[in-house]
Specification:
By secondary structure, the chain is of the alpha+beta class. The protein folds into 2 domains: 2-80, no CATH class; 83-144. The chain is built from 2 helices and 6 strands, in the order ββββββαα. It is rod-shaped and about 120 Å long.
């Protein structure tokens, strides 16, 4: 079991569960610990401090370790993943670029569609005028 300490920001107290008299205090972060998570298989503890550090602790217990080795547990996929700030910025810039290109393409397609629609409407009007002219000529010929 691991707990953070309010009176000692950045420190971590670790003991076995069920509790024993053996408690280890670890000072790794220079500022308070913001978040703690244990890995899916209880092998690692992750802490994130307000100092910007991500610290990974290996949890070791002989009984649990032997049990895991016998079971051969299969790893699961995490829902979250970590990337560097530079990689995040690069990906964010690419996404924004592609979103702009998508909007530009949508506008271009809309303009093209409206232009083609207008041309077809003009063609239909022209053909309708031709049909009307032929109809007028046919009516004059038949009425004579």
């Amino acid at each position: 079991m691991a707990t953070g300490q309010n009176d000692l920001p950045g420190s971590l107290r670790v003991s076995n569960y069920p509790f024993s008299n053996s408690v280890h205090e670890i000072f790794v972060h220079s500022k308070p610990i913001k978040k703690m998570k244990v890995s899916y298989n209880d092998d690692h503890l992750f802490t994130i401090g307000e100092d910007g550090l991500l610290v990974v602790y290996e949890l070791y217990d002989k009984e649990t370790q032997n049990k895991r080795e016998k079971e051969g547990s299969e790893a699961e996929y995490a829902e979250d993943f970590l990337i560097s700030k530079d990689e995040y910025s690069t990906l964010k810039t690419k996404i924004e670029k592609y979103e702009r290109k998508l909007k530009e393409q949508e506008i271009t397609n809309k303009i093209k569609y409206n232009t083609e629609l207008k041309e077809r409407d003009e063609d239909i009007k022209h053909l309708q005028d031709e049909i009307d002219k032929v109809g007028d000529i046919l009516n004059r010929v038949l009425s004579k």
